[in-house]
Design brief:
flat, 154 residues, mainly alpha
Length: 154
């Protein structure tokens, strides 16, 4: 029986809290309504230019289009045969998937190629100075490396 009494007491407390919250909400709503009423509402008007300069710069009215002539001209254009001979097939061919990579890397490869040629020339000079190989063999090695580099580029 005590549980029933406690439940009734809790229900009464909840009712009191709800009444209190409603009163609070009503007072806040009335305050916000008073604030909203004190703010002036904007009046929207259409703009009509009063000066001649503005009227002249305004958008000119578009003349009505003769619908039948427009449609007939469009249909005539559709009936005309399409000339395929003027189209260049080479421009329509898809590019290779790595074309942009080759384009971006080409400048760097040119620099590396120049550095490689300089390094080969220095190695040949060093060998000649050291006397390890004779001049003919050094020249043959350099010419072979240059031709192999050129073949790889192609």
């Amino acid at each position: 029986m005590d549980t029933v009494g406690k439940l009734e007491e809790e229900a009464l407390k909840r009712k009191e809290r709800l009444k209190h919250l409603k009163r609070k909400q009503e007072t806040s709503n009335s305050e916000s309504n008073q604030i909203a009423e004190s703010i002036p509402k904007p009046v929207f008007r259409n703009y009509r230019p009063e000066s001649e300069e503005i009227k002249e710069n305004a958008i000119e009215e578009v003349s009505p289009i003769d619908l039948e002539t427009e449609i007939s001209s469009q249909l005539a254009m559709m009936k005309a045969p399409i000339v395929i001979e003027d189209i260049d097939i080479a421009n329509l061919a898809p590019r290779k998937p790595d074309w942009d990579l080759k384009r971006d890397v080409s400048k760097k490869l040119e620099k590396l190629e120049r550095r490689t040629q300089k390094a080969i020339a220095e190695l040949i000079r060093d060998r000649l100075k050291a006397g390890q190989d004779d001049i003919l063999q050094a020249v043959n090695v350099a010419s072979a490396s240059i031709t192999s580099a050129n073949n790889e580029d192609e």
